[in-house]
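In practice, a research group might receive sequence data for several interacting partners and want a quick structural hypothesis before committing to experiments. The following worked case mirrors that situation: the sequences arrive first, and a predicted assembly follows.
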Amino acid sequence: MLKVGVLGGTGYAGIETVRLLSKHSGVEITRIVSQSFAGQKISDVYQNLRGICDLTCCALDVEDIAENCDLVFTALPHGASKEVIPSLYEKGLKIIDLSGDFRYNDEKVYEKWYGAPHSSPELLKESVYGLCELHRDEIKTHRLIGNPGCYTTCSILALAPLVANRLIDNKSIIIDAKSGVTGAGRGLALPSMFCECTESMKAYKVATHRHTSEIEQELSCLAGEEIMLSFTPHLAPMKRGILATSYASLQAEKSTEELVEIYKKFYQKEKFVRVYEAGTLPEVKHITGSNYVGIGLVVDPRLRRVVVVSCIDNLVKGAAGQAVQNMNLICGFPEDTGLTDAGFYL
Amino acid sequence: MLKVGVLGGTGYAGIETVRLLSKHSGVEITRIVSQSFAGQKISDVYQNLRGICDLTCCALDVEDIAENCDLVFTALPHGASKEVIPSLYEKGLKIIDLSGDFRYNDEKVYEKWYGAPHSSPELLKESVYGLCELHRDEIKTHRLIGNPGCYTTCSILALAPLVANRLIDNKSIIIDAKSGVTGAGRGLALPSMFCECTESMKAYKVATHRHTSEIEQELSCLAGEEIMLSFTPHLAPMKRGILATSYASLQAEKSTEELVEIYKKFYQKEKFVRVYEAGTLPEVKHITGSNYVGIGLVVDPRLRRVVVVSCIDNLVKGAAGQAVQNMNLICGFPEDTGLTDAGFYL
Amino acid sequence: MLKVGVLGGTGYAGIETVRLLSKHSGVEITRIVSQSFAGQKISDVYQNLRGICDLTCCALDVEDIAENCDLVFTALPHGASKEVIPSLYEKGLKIIDLSGDFRYNDEKVYEKWYGAPHSSPELLKESVYGLCELHRDEIKTHRLIGNPGCYTTCSILALAPLVANRLIDNKSIIIDAKSGVTGAGRGLALPSMFCECTESMKAYKVATHRHTSEIEQELSCLAGEEIMLSFTPHLAPMKRGILATSYASLQAEKSTEELVEIYKKFYQKEKFVRVYEAGTLPEVKHITGSNYVGIGLVVDPRLRRVVVVSCIDNLVKGAAGQAVQNMNLICGFPEDTGLTDAGFYL
Amino acid sequence: MLKVGVLGGTGYAGIETVRLLSKHSGVEITRIVSQSFAGQKISDVYQNLRGICDLTCCALDVEDIAENCDLVFTALPHGASKEVIPSLYEKGLKIIDLSGDFRYNDEKVYEKWYGAPHSSPELLKESVYGLCELHRDEIKTHRLIGNPGCYTTCSILALAPLVANRLIDNKSIIIDAKSGVTGAGRGLALPSMFCECTESMKAYKVATHRHTSEIEQELSCLAGEEIMLSFTPHLAPMKRGILATSYASLQAEKSTEELVEIYKKFYQKEKFVRVYEAGTLPEVKHITGSNYVGIGLVVDPRLRRVVVVSCIDNLVKGAAGQAVQNMNLICGFPEDTGLTDAGFYL
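A structural hypothesis for the assembly, expressed as tokens:
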């Protein structure tokens, strides 16, 4: 059994990691680190885990972690993870970091979007961007994974086949994304209160959201040229789920059916990517609770523009599920271990 | 007191019209027509109206309507209204039609998007498009008003200042709109069931929604050239409200602040349009339950693109409220009579 | 115009008071006091009020309030109000207090349920319990009103006809109440976060909720003997609204129809109380957004027990609406001024 | 591998059965019967199942079922199941019926509450009530199981320890239950529409809900005397979950702690029953998506009354999960096979 720890285990991404790991046949959770709930049983903080995972949360102790874990998931606040990760890495642990700290090829991009220099630029070079469908082989040979952001996973997978096949004007990309409220985390904040969210929607961080830079990095790689694009996040009154609607101008006339075929071919070996037939589109409820990605598209022949609709569960494929998928890759488990559940739908 | 009738008064747009009229100081509701609930008191169908409007619904009888109403709101299913409206018009009534039948300048556009020839092309010429902020003077002199669609009101008002001032590339317009479920009406349908909607989102009628044609018509008028654009409607898990996020490429560099000033000037006399200061954006809860429109914007200088966020209550400014505003205009009431309530927020 | 102030105007009860007052023809809001938002326009804190109420919030200044207000609503946290109210009362202001501080006939009851002695027992004697339907005449002659709690209004009105008419075993009363989340206020708290509330329900403060004591006080008065009862509050995933289901054993056999008649007679002069016909029951959506109370009942002849279902909007009849109704009573406005709106339903 | 069929597989209880079976290591789903969707792939009707269960739904054919299934779950509308079950039983199949048809010991009780004579009284005698925690041994030796109703499972388990230990006045029992909307099924109905449910609550079928009779039957068995009780169902704006609040008068003084101990002892061998410590109570989100039952309680010493709060997921422990648990029992699988998932919480 692989011994794993979850650092930041009582936040929403952390607890979803615990929930998924509790179904994984090859791992044992040995440590859950939580500053706020140290000394309490995780199943007292999240009572859905009673009898399933009753570990007591502990404060952070690098030595203790190193002794008792082969691999850690770090779901710490941005900034906190960069303090801890170098010491854990030095001790030989495998690390899957759910923060934004190790998602970049270029520390300057990090600095630009995070507003501060990267604290471990040398470690950044050791890390790989953990979008499994695009970087599977690289991931397998690394032990520090920058687990992608939720919006970015949903957006990159939606556009990758178009960019990689040079089908669109790369200057025309617009991504309009809608997220559930778990995306804002468990920290107390007025905008996350029930009465402020329910029966409402809003756009936020228009033209400035950090995930923009991740999407641009990955699509630029695929394109072989620098891509800049519009990304607008929105908050929707639901717990889980992201729906991204992406727009781009086609370089040449293509039908919906032709593009669907191209997508199917691009993702033919990908268990977790579901390409929808022409005439159908994914909805959030198709994937909630699961690691699946739904992608559908429509060509608007009047405008020679393609509209791609993609959905993921922000906590699963957008965070904890992809983290487990990365663990499976770097530890030699079958890639879908612990991740085969259907979405809830209801 | 103006005697008014509401035809189709038990659908969601109809009942919201009744609710608003019940607060209007200058009108008396004399008839509520409902095929499904004829013979029942409206306050038994919608018990929020008990003691406020206890009229008994009646089946449609054109003679009876003509005798007892000066003005009618027709909130009938598409198609049904076109049967009734010619006879009522002939009898001299003022008519505010909430269907799509009288929203077009050109019957061919109607035919193209509705898939059937218009049944009263001569009457279409007598009608005017009831977007009060753009056609106020014309509205005042007509007695058949095609009350605009919900998505269209939200979208047109968001883009009008840009188009009218020739600030954008008219080929670059993309509107990504999110609506509450009342937009789907009260008719029984699986996708409108609670368990199919809540905690989910979806895009629908991508590149084919009829409201596209209304938006194009109005923006083309303002531009003096034909505009075609992308419009994508989405269903969000809330009752009321539309949030539209519109994208366009700027012809020249402009700052957010400059554009906000242009918007403020464009709408300076408009009571129901709230232009948001740079750095703030409207949210659905700001306008739910009210006739107000919130508009804010952000310029993305990296891409020289503007992102406009606009919100309305689909049942009020997007249907019943604008219908009452139109009534006020054509009947000589102060334009905001019965429409001054703040949104609910909570 | 009556000059009124709202102290604690940015909490949920406070802002609902502002919203309702903005529709009241006889008052002018001259002061909104908010410690947290002093210096900001109320319409920047709650943007639904833009153009409707743009007053700047101010810090508390008793002299200033006394000079500029004839009447104040105090929607301050429990405890805070008791500091302020004596000084305002001394200066001759009319005061409607939305806290629990002035709801008791007996300071010992306050002390027992609030865990501390009452700070102004002499002022408590000057105050009257502001449940308009039961204490109308007394209210009119007082100028310090203890505005009732939300659960209590819904529960007392549901049971008053039974108790006053000696129809039930007073030892058998059980009230099971379900509230929307605005009842928890705007203060940041984990249990009020969207992701912790939505798609869930819970009971809380079982057998210990303070509103129990208010209900017991009022029903005991009506009964002429001491009543103790079970009261269980629950949190439901909605913003507004309370539904209370009350149970009691009948002293003698009565049919549903007979009891409905007794209720109708009891409330025959009450504009805001809607007694439902046998076979129908109130639902939260019938009253949301309005000052109305819906009451229906079913007799279970198998058990000779009556089940009463009652609904109010906790922010309106349960707080701000009743406060305005009290203002109308003590200031000589028609009792329903500013309160005649239908509920939203949608 | 056990070959199983799901009859009525596209309703909400049916599809949840399919979802749970898809995780069960010992079964193969060979048939999904759906009148409405015959000929369509189940994963086109519920797209969360794509790649997980892609069986084509078929119309009902008893011969075909008998040949291809060892066991069937019948999640058919009340009435429909009683047509089919006798023929399937005759052919030797194991049957777990999710309708109300085989839940009664006494056909007269069925007749009284369902308003029609039972169509297979002789088969009723062959069946056993499938509440696993109470009838485990009997279940193992039968092959026709009347799977309990959702409200009943939640209510009976909440009260069983009190009744079995003769701790309460059996005449004093009141159960106030709140259910999510999946409980109303997938059939099109106005009250199940999103805009009619969200932000509202209602009581329904007060004193007449059929589940009352199941609860009374089971508690009477435990008591050894006939029990009649009040049961009030409510609809809450959530998809899944039931929270039942039960009230009863204690025969003697007991503390909360003492009763908790009694509950723990009563359920000490029950994996799926979680008794909460004094001072804590279950919430719907603790059990949503899982087969667990949460039970907590509070004694109100003022009234010598106990309040028990219990929660289940109506689709899992209240329907499909318990059905799978029953299958495990009668087929010799470990009782928790396929049922060990933690609830979603988020």
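Before designing any experiment, note the following. The two ends of chain A are 33 Å apart (CA to CA). Chain A is about 35% helix and 20% strand.
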